[in-house]
Request: fold
Amino acid sequence: MKIVNTYKKIAVFVGVLTLAACAHEDQPTESQLDFNQPLKTELDKWIDTNYLVPYNINAQYKWNQNTVDNTRYLFPPTLDKVQPALEIVKQIWLASYATVGGADFVKKIAPREIVLVGGVNSNSNGTRTLGIAEGGQRITLFEVDNINKKNRAIVAEFIHTIQHEYVHILNQNKPFDEQAWGKITPSGYTATWHLETTAASRELGYITNYARSNVVEDFAETASIILISTKAEYAAILAGITSAKGRADIQRKEAIVVQYFKDAFNMDFYALRDEAEKNTTYVINN
Amino acid sequence: MKIKYIFKYLVVASFAMQLTSCTETEVEQKFDKTPTERLNARKSELQQVLPTSEFGWKAVYFTDNKQLGGFTHLFKFTPEGKVDMASDFNTDTKIYTSDYGIQLGSTVSLVFTTKNRIHLLSDSNPAAAPTAALVGKGYLGDFQFLYYGQENGELLFKTNRNGQDVRFVKATAQDWTDLPKNFLMIPNVVGRNIYGANRGLEIIDGTTKKTYDFNPFTTITRFTSYSTATEVNGLGIGYTPTGIVVSPAITVGEQKLSNFVYNSTNGSFTATGTNGVSASIKYSDTPFVISDDYKNFAPGQPQKVVGYLAPNLTAAQSNSVLCRTLLDKINAGLPANQSLARVQVVFNNAVNGTYIQYLFNGGKATITHFVTTKVNDTNKTIVLTDAGWTHNAATIAILKDLDAQLTSPDGLYIKKEAFTIVASNKIYTLANASNNGFRITAYQL
Reply:
């Protein structure tokens, strides 16, 4: 057994050597990462107070190539336009949903990020993309540089974009009955919607020409047009439609929208419209 | 003894591990520092250098020198992330303030994070497009510049989107005050042919001279070209208070010439290198390029018609001063309701041979001058010789001076040009080969 003991001793010795052999390696030093917080401007602080803290929404106005389509020729907004745009969003969209859906509604179902882009987002077919909703998490709003709070048409278009995209976010969280919707006006959807007029589209049962692009856009357009119109304005839209079937189809879609808001979020859609209208008037007059 | 073998193997295995465990596994270091350290160093280098220049930086940004010219931008950075900016994109040369950031993309980059003048180059609004082909793309501009270090105190960048080189040079106080003067250079770049019937680019490499046509300049794109009969080279132009900057640079041997100085006495722009190297954009009554195009009009060739058409070609720069004078003289001699509509030369018509036709607006009958043609291969000209008119001497008197240029005994240089005017038709110019300054512009009809 002597030889076994010798081996044992050698084995222990080798084991110690093994453990000690690489002990001289460098120890980790301070991190290379830059943890310095960027300086916050008054605008940044305003965004923190009005978006980040109450809603956990990051309103991003500075250019970040990772949040935009780099193949398009876009540019960030002018600094002076950022706060007015975000004020409109807050007053007309966030406040309206908070009033009708409850204070926590948009905190739970909201995009976590709003990206503002200053310029026009042109498409190759000559149309403009006004907004994009992605994965229920991010809304990108274009043409922020055109914002003029005193111009109702501009505010209305901007709000239309937000309402439209937010309906997408809601749909991305709780789907609506696409099959039932698709059966109402199954034949009028077209990829070349931009060649159609809104007036002709309404005769066929679509609230706008863009609603004809597909069922999902049809839902978002129907909901958002009702939301940005007063009760009287919407009634006038319906009254202007010659085709009884077209009018009835739009009303059937309206009923699905109203039911969706009730079933999915226990929300009175018409109350939401009235609140948005009230807030829109407030924004334009202040 | 079984356990003994186990120990033996274990010991052998342990020694083997000893031999391999501390083997040098690190690859040879090409750099002194880790990639993170190097990126951080680059970042802080850029952060530190940007605010250091007292009067900021100047960059003539050529967004795509295959179709567009250069736009001068002046930047003054603060360490707090603000940038004052002015540009000569349009006549609003005021200074505006916005934000910038140093971001990590594929490498360290300078990004103009909120809107300022440089973003005007990246506007997809169809109304902002300089050409139909660029609808939705604006001026192909970028505002994220990847940082590639410094050279002689200048900062080297490449644009993030399409890899164009952008160089920041230290600006002076005068650069800021003189920026509006860039616009005074535009008429000089557009040119005035009072200095000569032809405009060319002359490159001298110290001993020999190479000449090109310098083609009409388009202000909306800040772009032009210079060409011979066989090659066309695009040229982007940026304005300076004293001349122009061109891209791509004119390469002569090892030298690259890009800064041209304007000379108001003869309308020329000259870039001077070393050892007698220079490049000049200048005027001359003698053509810079003489082509073989005359051969296509020689006797025996198929019919070809070229014609000066009013009003499309009336303002063409390739109409010389003498040409305009003679055209104006004809119109002045006509009744108020009449004017010259066309001067066209029909070559090798199957029935009537070659003839010059003068067509009029206002009901006046067409006048035709029959000619015979012969070519001069030495001078590369075609000579039109009188063979009779359709009208009497009194009627044709009004056309005599212009006609004399086309039927000059020295012949005509007839050349297909590298540019078009209004229509897509090919443009030819016909010039009196006596080099007296007569040159008229015509469509191939």
